[in-house]
Amino acid sequence: MGADGATDDGIYPMPIDSGGVAMVATRDIAEVAALELIRLDAAPGRLPIETIDLLGPTR
User: Fold this and answer.
1) What confidence tens digit (pLDDT) does each residue in 3-32 have?
2) What per-residue confidence (pLDDT) applies to 37?
3) Closest CA to 33 of 6, 52, 17
4) What is the C-alpha to C-alpha distance for residues 54 and 41, in angstroms, rounded to an integer?
5) Which residue pairs from 35-44 have beta carbons closer than 8 angstroms and sit at least 24 positions apart in sequence?
6) Is the pTM higher than 0.70?
7) DSSP label at residue 11
8) What are phi and psi of 34, to 5 degrees?
9) CA 40/CA 2 separation, integer angstroms
10) Other Cβ atoms closer than 10 A to 16
11) For 31, phi and psi rounded to 5 degrees?
12) Which of 16, 47, 54, 59 has its CA 20 to 30 A from that of 23?
């Protein structure tokens, strides 16, 4: 695992409640971040801060 928390496989593991781990692909995180930056840049004014929940694959 790198210093930023991402694995060498391009996965960002995030601990959840009772010892489980949710994994989201770093490419998916980058895509959501880029889309949000584009949305904020195109907005006519300042937008409220939002929290975006990302979910890994389901079984």
Assistant:
1) 455 556 666 666 666 666 667 888 888 999
2) 95
3) 52
4) 21
5) none
6) no
7) E
8) -65, -45
9) 29
10) 9
11) -65, -45
12) 47
Buried b (16+ CB within 10 A) or exposed e, 22-55: eebbeebbeeeeeeeeeeeeeeeeeeeeeeeeee
* CA angle, residues 7, 13, 18, in degrees to nearest 5: 145
Amino acid occupying residue 38: I
Q: Compute CA distances 46 → 36, 41, 43, whole Å.
A: 13, 9, 7
Tokens of 31: 């895509």
Cα separation, 22 vs 14, whole angstroms: 5
3-state SS class at 22: strand
Q: What is the pLDDT of residue 2?
A: 46
